[in-house]
Automatic annotation (TrEMBL), chains A, B, C:
<dbReference type="GO" id="GO:0010038">
    <property type="term" value="P:response to metal ion"/>
</dbReference>
<comment type="similarity">
    <text>Belongs to the CutA family.</text>
</comment>
<dbReference type="InterPro" id="IPR011322">
    <property type="entry name" value="N-reg_PII-like_a/b"/>
</dbReference>
<dbReference type="InterPro" id="IPR015867">
    <property type="entry name" value="N-reg_PII/ATP_PRibTrfase_C"/>
</dbReference>
<keyword id="KW-0963">Cytoplasm</keyword>
<protein>
    <submittedName>
        <fullName>Divalent-cation tolerance protein CutA</fullName>
    </submittedName>
</protein>
<dbReference type="Pfam" id="PF03091">
    <property type="entry name" value="CutA1"/>
</dbReference>
<dbReference type="GO" id="GO:0005507">
    <property type="term" value="F:copper ion binding"/>
</dbReference>
<dbReference type="InterPro" id="IPR004323">
    <property type="entry name" value="Ion_tolerance_CutA"/>
</dbReference>
Length: 100, 100, 100
């Protein structure tokens, strides 16, 4: 099943996570604060951000991705999908039942 | 090699991680605190949890998974396996030597 | 595209991340503090570390891995590659343009 890795501004993290779960695009979101280093317009920048690890279904992934793009304040957001090679059966069933 | 992604209550994280390493089911565990948002019994809930990123071998994965289920206080625990596409050779050898 | 999972001593995290981005081996690095439990010389040890999640290209991966090995203070560093099953197109293009 997919886990979607998204980085967001820390002050937007809670609202984006709540929206994805309220709209049944995700069953759960784990939010982790991080320190980011990146190159932008030729300069090395650093910033505090939050990583969202978003749990959804194969069938729900495309709608989730489109909705994150809409909600996201960045011009070029990090949205990447990582597929689990195995998921505990009852946890997978819960995600299937929870995501529309 | 597998990295197993598990979310646990923060106050149980240290003991579960130590048990998995002491019993040679894992070579190492990286524990990261997170803020979780999820749907349960029809309501959107939030909670503080800890993500365990557990390093083991292909051969050890099934026993590790069964032991995490035993140790875990949740009815429906998040236990998911992600396979590395590449692992630094000496690190892979260390995991192989450390896990029973 | 690859995300490389590296654990480093917390006091070396910022410099390693900055070096990888300055040398155009990575487009961005997300650094997350963690608590690690591992077996070393037959004993279970715990320590505070930082996980670096390093975003690069397929073509850049081998050079990035070699450079992390050079910069890393550990004898046996955790360097593992996880491949995204999907990456938002504009984010992937940004990584392609940013990594040499």
């Amino acid at each position: 099943m997919p886990t979607v890795y998204v980085t967001v501004p820390t002050d937007a993290a809670e609202e984006i996570a709540a929206t994805l779960v309220e709209e049944r695009l995700a069953a759960c979101v784990n939010a982790v604060d991080c320190h980011s280093t990146y190159r932008w317009d030729g300069r090395v920048e650093t910033d505090t951000e939050t990583i969202l690890l978003v749990k959804t279904t194969d069938a729900g992934y495309d709608r989730l991705k489109a909705r994150i793009e809409e909600l996201h304040p960045y011009e070029v957001p990090c949205i990447e999908r990582f597929d689990a090679a195995d998921t505990l059966e009852c946890f997978g069933s819960w995600i299937d039942d929870t995501v529309d």
